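User: We ran a pulldown and think these components assemble together. Before we commit to crystallization trials, I'd like a predicted model of the whole complex to look at. Sequences follow.
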Amino acid sequence: MSTPARKKKARFYPASDNLRQKMGTGGIDPQVLERAEQQFAQAEKDYLPLAAGIFKKLETAIAEVSAEKIGERDAIERIAGPVMELKATGGMFGYALISEIAAVALDFLENVDAPDKDVMDIVKIHQRSLNAILTSRIKGQGGKEGLALSRELQAACQRYYTKHNITP
Amino acid sequence: MAYKFDKASILVVDDMLPMTRLVGNLLTTLGFRTVDTANTADKGFDLFCRHGHDIVLADWLMEPYDGIDMARKIRTDAASPNKFVPIIMMTGYSHRIRVEQARDIGVTEFLMKPFRARDLFARIEQLIERPRQFVECEGFFGPDRRRRRAAGEFGGPDRREGMGGETKGASIDRDAAALLKNLHDQIREAEQSKGRR
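Assistant: Here's a predicted model for the assembly, 365 residues in total across the polymer chains.
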């Protein structure tokens, strides 16, 4: 019988107070934080070209997956990348509804394994919605109509989960 | 008294120029004076080796090397000037498995995109007020992982409050409203007809 290899003991290093020594304590002036929040409004003009580039990547990924040019294993990840980027960027540049709908799509993609037809149908309705919002330059959350749209997309994902016995 | 952010240096690494610019502007407005930026993980690591910043703020999804690769290098590469530096990983990913992956290579804090200035400030405040001990054991070197779950996940319509734009239920431009309603109706109809099949 062989002797099990002895596990290396964990070594602990105490937490450093380097940042506190440099920056002190005391929080932040609320007016400074408010000024920082206003930076987002100034960045809005940068968004559409950025989003167009990400959206192009999404279209290419969907086309490649639909044409079965990408193995099943990588397909979801390939689509999820640009969807995540749309989610990450929209709300920071004044397009909160883009983030909201991309978040629904990303959550869906993180819960499915393979790009079957039903998955791709759901991905495409998200793509169509995102494209329409970008093309029409709908800023903000889109009011109650935007909320109804994202709820409807969530419901479509939920129906897929129910049909395929997935617990998100 | 407020934090003296001007005493610390920070490195921002993101491959999207508008994002790097926005985050840089946010940090400058908060009071940081030394904000360096890089648009690839490689350039970011080089800058870090030269200047040894006090905080690193990196995006996850970059090419050819991503933020995870860069964090790993900072924690393990012999050239790294400070393997204990706090690393904040910015990303749109929020699933538990992704968070754990980042945590397991030694990321200190997770910052979900989209975020607001107060979210960024909260992460920095966390680094100052609650610094974490480091652990070195087989296959891991980084901040102690035994901690609360990441907060503030952005789950779509469930987190509308505080995300900018207009408040919940507010009305929007008539054309935009018609377009969104039309999309909603089309999706509902398509789903219903699928259900009937």
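Chain A has a mean pLDDT of 92. That may be worth checking against your pulldown data before setting up trials.

User: Thanks, that helps.
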